[in-house]
Design goal:
mainly alpha, 4 helices, 81% helix, flat
Amino acid sequence: MSGVADRFPAFWRIVIDSPGLRARAREGVEEVETALAGAFAEAGVPEPDLLAALTVGAYRSVYVATARRLLAGERAEEIAEDHRARIAAAFDALDRALA
């Protein structure tokens, strides 16, 4: 599964139109980043806060681009493979940068 579906744009439009929901979405991303940093720290990963920020940033970049395409009317089946490839490329780049 790619993590994208044709039903998502209706949800995103509601979030986009609501300042409160947009703020909560940003808070949610911060919560994920904090939890990820904690998990990295527990695993003994050097620079856990930086790694968490880079990981969340890599995922967010791909996710936002995919969301924009869906909101523009592209169908999930048309972009799912590209979405998966971009996620893989983002994490491969992150892996190389941290090696």
